[in-house]
TrEMBL record:
Cross-referenced InterPro entries: Dimeric_a/b-barrel
Protein name: ABM domain-containing protein
Length: 243
């Protein structure tokens, strides 16, 4: 089963365009065994925050990179350009689509959502056990309808406890990706009667908090690389020295 890693961060030295150092951090991942595709772009609501999404061929591939000799210099390069306030956020999840089988259809659904011009990233924190089922039902309601500008979805349970913010309590979390033509297409669909308004109640209970890394407009989309090998990583060290 594939696994998707999310890294949300701010740069130490913000600029109107990504730096060469950031380009080096992302481009070096293309040659890492097990990386199948990667995406990066700014959060439209807060352009100082950038999201890096890395698709791994397997959890073992993710783990192998973190335990390899090449990981330490890569992580040092990432740390050198990343601000500590707000703290960066790392998490990963195996993503599926409505079929939920974990096969080619689910991988295609995930790629469709990520390859859209704009991707909405929803995270629910402190979720109850049935929240993943509610997320599946919500996503299924959208995919079964004809929604202008909608490019598909993927969802999954975050593999390690995740907190909402530096002071939040860590707990189970669920993430949902929705692909759109644009932020405006998302807002238009959200603002009128239809599949979103009909199903949004499913996401309003069974969790403590939510966050919208919402509309991310990809600057480096479609950076697809060959699936060279399958390699491993249980947890990602954070930039403050934790593990």
């Amino acid at each position: 089963m594939t696994v998707t890693e999310f890294i949300l961060l701010s740069f130490k030295h913000p600029s109107s365009s990504p730096s060469a150092a950031w380009a080096d951090v992302t481009s070096s991942l293309k040659s890492v065994p097990g990386v199948t595709s990667l995406f990066t772009g700014p959060q439209l609501e807060d352009p100082s925050r950038h999201l890096l999404v890395i698709n791994w061929a397997s959890p073992e591939a993710f783990s192998a990179f973190a335990s390899s000799e090449s990981y330490t210099p890569w992580f040092a390069s990432l740390k050198a350009i990343t601000a500590t306030d707000p703290a960066p956020v790392f998490y990963k999840a195996p993503l599926v689509s409505v079929s939920g089988a974990g096969g080619d259809d689910d991988q295609q659904g995930q790629e469709t959502a990520l390859r859209a011009p704009c991707t909405e990233v929803f995270v629910a924190y402190g979720v109850e056990p049935d929240f993943i089922g509610k997320t599946a039902a919500f996503a299924g309601g959208l995919s079964a309808a004809e929604i202008a500008g909608f490019h598909g979805h993927a969802y999954g349970e975050v593999s390690t406890p995740l907190a909402s913010g530096a002071e939040g309590e860590k707990g189970p979390a669920v993430t949902l990706l929705l692909g759109w033509d644009s932020k405006e297409a998302h807002l238009e669909a959200k603002g009128k009667a239809g599949p979103i308004s009909d199903n949004v109640h499913l996401l309003r209970s069974g969790r403590k908090e939510i966050a919208m890394v919402s509309s991310v407009e990809w600057l480096l989309p479609h950076a697809r690389v060959a699936n060279i090998a399958q390699v491993p990583c249980e947890s990602q060290a954070n930039l403050n020295g934790g593990s």
